[in-house]
Write a structure and sequence with these properties.
442 residues, five-stranded antiparallel sheet, 52% helix, 21% strand
């Protein structure tokens, strides 16, 4: 640390002047939640187009990653899948280099995360590891709802690769990636590649994410692949039978449920002779949720089909941040000691005023980085129903609210997709596939 100590009175005077400027600038800065408060309020009210425009303004987020991610999720939630793809591309381009580093050498990524700064908010925000993985899963949904199966498959491969990179970096297995594995298995099935789909569903089974989805899928594909040994295994383990899907249609519900977590600051401030030592790190807080699973209601099908959780975003966010806390705490501790050293120097050169300036500089600038992807859901969920081809009246329900979709003609072998976004007591649903026969009355 001695190498960083100012060596001349003139240099320390210049530092004192710079600190005064920093104090003025920092005191006028808003946190990320404050800067995006209006946009997020519009998003939660279901004013998705308004929120999208606000988030697309670079001044709102001051981060290309968050600009693209937040605006993209706003467009996706509003059913504007083409715009969502464009915004998500901005976010992906902003973190392309860090993703290359993460995939090529996770340990090197760890070294980059230990870089020193006055505080972390002064660094370019490139997303948490889980956020970058979920970006590609969200892009996959936007591609899927646009009818681009190949594009969706490319994105889920990247999402799964990034998750595996995070697991290598932190030497642990996250119970995550379920959305990516499900979408990958689904797109392989639709592309007529049951062997590849089977691999993805077995990955879901290994992580035990979405049992009501993977168990019947494993039995169904084991039968299709003439794998009698595996078929008997799944029958005994999950009490499922392999249905014959020849000539059947299917409906897939993809649901973004609830509001995702946000970051708060935690830490301590310790007064000591000639200054203070302040240590701060971020922590995630989970929002209260007002709705549970999304139900698909099909006239003629007695039991509603409920979505199951594939990605517990709030839990994964906390786990991923917890794994970084040691690095974040180290950075904060190093900054604390350097700032304390500078406070002592300023006190010796400028007396009480210098000490006060140093203490204020420490307290004001030692801030945890509270930036995060705010429009993510609390969880990603999905369901799938096979049913005979024909005309079916469909609705979706979340909590006490039901939204009719209409009556749709489904052809043999056709898969219809329904994307649902729930926020508070609101439900927003969009569909791709099927031929509308007539609208249902609310």
């Amino acid at each position: 640390m001695s190498a960083l100590r100012p060596r001349s009175r003139a240099l320390r005077a210049l530092l004192f002047a710079c600190i005064c400027v920093v104090l003025v600038l920092q005191s006028s800065c808003q946190s990320y939640r404050q800067r995006t408060e209006a946009a997020f309020a519009d998003y939660e009210r279901g004013q998705f187009a308004v929120a999208e425009r606000q988030y697309a303004d670079p001044k709102t987020t001051d981060s290309d990653f968050l600009r693209g991610a937040e605006a993209g999720m706003s467009a996706l939630s509003g059913g504007n899948f083409a715009a969502a793809r464009q915004h998500f591309e901005i976010a992906a381009e902003a973190v392309r280099q860090i993703e290359r580093t993460a995939l090529a050498d996770p340990e090197k990524l760890g070294e980059q995360l230990l870089s020193w700064a006055v505080n972390d908010t002064w660094l370019t925000y490139e997303g948490e590891g889980y956020e970058r993985a979920l970006l590609h899963s969200a892009r996959a949904i936007a591609h899927l709802m646009s009818g681009d199966l190949d594009g969706a498959r490319v994105e889920v491969r990247q999402a799964n690769a990034l998750l595996e990179s995070e697991e290598r970096l932190y030497k642990k297995e996250y119970r995550a990636g379920g959305l990516g594995h499900f979408l990958s298995g689904l797109t392989y099935e639709l592309a007529g590649r049951p062997d590849d789909a089977y691999i993805d569903y077995k990955r879901l089974e290994k992580k035990d994410l979405g049992r009501d989805l993977y168990a019947p899928a494993l039995a169904r594909l084991a039968r299709e692949l003439d794998n009698d040994e595996d078929l008997e295994l799944w029958r005994q383990r999950y009490s499922v039978e392999a249905i014959d899907t020849e000539g059947l249609a299917s409906i897939v519900v993809l649901a973004a449920v609830g509001s995702g977590p946000y970051k708060v600051e935690t830490g301590i401030t310790i007064p000591i002779p000639e200054g203070v030592v302040q240590w701060t790190v971020p922590a995630f807080t989970r929002r209260p949720q007002t709705s549970g699973p999304v139900q698909l209601l099909v006239e003629g099908v007695e039991t509603p089909i409920e979505t199951v959780v594939l990605e517990d975003v709030a839990r994964v966010a906390k786990e991923n941040l917890d794994d970084r806390l040691a690095w974040l705490a180290t950075k904060s501790a190093v900054r604390a000691m350097l700032k304390y050293q500078l406070t002592r120097e300023l006190g010796r050169d400028h007396g009480t005023l210098g000490t006060i300036a140093g203490v204020l500089f420490t307290v004001i600038t030692e801030r945890a980085d509270l930036r995060c992807w705010m429009t993510l859901p609390d969880s990603w969920q999905a369901s799938r129903l096979f049913l005979p081809a024909g005309a079916w009246p469909l609705s979706v329900r979340a909590g006490a609210l039901t939204q009719p979709l209409g009556r749709f003609e489904l052809a043999p072998g056709e898969t219809m997709f329904v994307f649902v976004r729930t926020l508070g007591s609101q439900i927003h649903a969009y569909h791709v596939g099927g031929r509308p026969k007539e609208a249902l009355k609310p």
